């Protein structure tokens, strides 16, 4: 394996992150305010995603784990649910209805007005994530969307009150790397609002 090839991955990742710094800081700050406001009012955050290689599903679970457990500082657990984790629910819905409904059925069952849906799709085109957004709107929830590749069809279903964090890249790996950094920013921002700046 070429060391230069490995180093190029680091350079490419850093370049996308630096470009994203300029465009994503404001929507990430808005997402932190929205999520903290929901949590402070006793609401919850539901997270979903799949992705062709599973990265978005893992990101949804990572985010929920850091809210329920902790990010970097000790604090009480915060209510978050990853809609990607219950295999019985996922397979029952996919089998009895369709794979497109695996998240929207859960949003209908678990979501309440004032809750937030964190919807993750690198392409912006995942049908089951788009269906979850539509269900979230019907349940009077706010959506925070993480995408890339220009946002895809996600832009057609988001409302004016939703927050779209679209990574300026067309490469799935680079988008996922910025999604992970964004998730860490969200967790850190929520903690800072809850516990104060450290």
Kindly list the characteristics that best describe this protein.
198 residues, alpha/beta, Rossmann fold, 5-stranded parallel beta sheet, 7 helices, globular
How would you concisely characterize the structure shown here?
Catalyzes the isomerization of sedoheptulose 7-phosphate in D-glycero-D-manno-heptose 7-phosphate. The chain has seven helices and five strands; from the N terminus they run αβαβααβαβαβα.
Principal-axes geometry comes out as globular
Mean pLDDT equals: 96
Number of strands: 5
- SSE string: HEHEHHEHEHEH
Structural class: alpha/beta
Subunit structure: Homotetramer.
Subcellular location: Cytoplasm
Pfam family, one: SIS_2
Organism: Paraburkholderia haematera
Report on the architecture of this protein.
There is one protein chain. This protein is α/β, with parallel strands linked by helices. It has one domain: 3-Layer(aba) Sandwich (Rossmann fold), CATH 3.40.50. It contains seven helices and five strands. The chain has helices spanning 3-40, 55-68, 87-96, 104-110, 127-138, 154-157, 172-195, and strands at residues 45-49, 80-82, 116-120, 142-147, 163-166. A five-stranded parallel sheet has the order 2-1-3-4-5, sandwiched between helices. Helix 4 runs parallel beside helix 5 (127-138). The relative contact order is 0.19. The mean pLDDT is 96.
């Amino acid at each position: 394996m070429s060391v230069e090839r490995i180093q190029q991955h680091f350079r490419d990742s850093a370049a996308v992150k630096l470009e994203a710094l300029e465009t994503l800081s404001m929507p990430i700050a808005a997402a932190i305010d929205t999520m903290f406001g929901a949590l402070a009012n006793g609401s919850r955050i539901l997270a979903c995603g799949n992705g062709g290689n599973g990265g978005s599903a893992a990101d949804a679970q990572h985010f929920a784990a850091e809210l329920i457990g902790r990010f970097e500082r000790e604090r009480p657990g915060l209510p978050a649910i990853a809609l990607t984790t219950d295999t019985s629910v996922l397979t029952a819905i996919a089998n009895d209805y369709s794979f497109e409904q695996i998240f929207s059925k859960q949003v209908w069952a678990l979501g309440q007005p004032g809750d937030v849906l964190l919807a993750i799709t690198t392409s912006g085109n995942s049908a089951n994530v788009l269906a979850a957004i539509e269900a979230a709107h019907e349940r009077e929830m706010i959506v925070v969307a993480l995408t890339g590749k220009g946002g895809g069809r996600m832009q057609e279903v988001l409302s004016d009150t939703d927050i779209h964090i679209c990574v300026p890249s067309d490469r799935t790996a680079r988008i996922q790397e910025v999604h992970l950094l964004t998730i860490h920013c969200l967790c850190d921002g929520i903690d800072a609002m809850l516990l104060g700046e450290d």
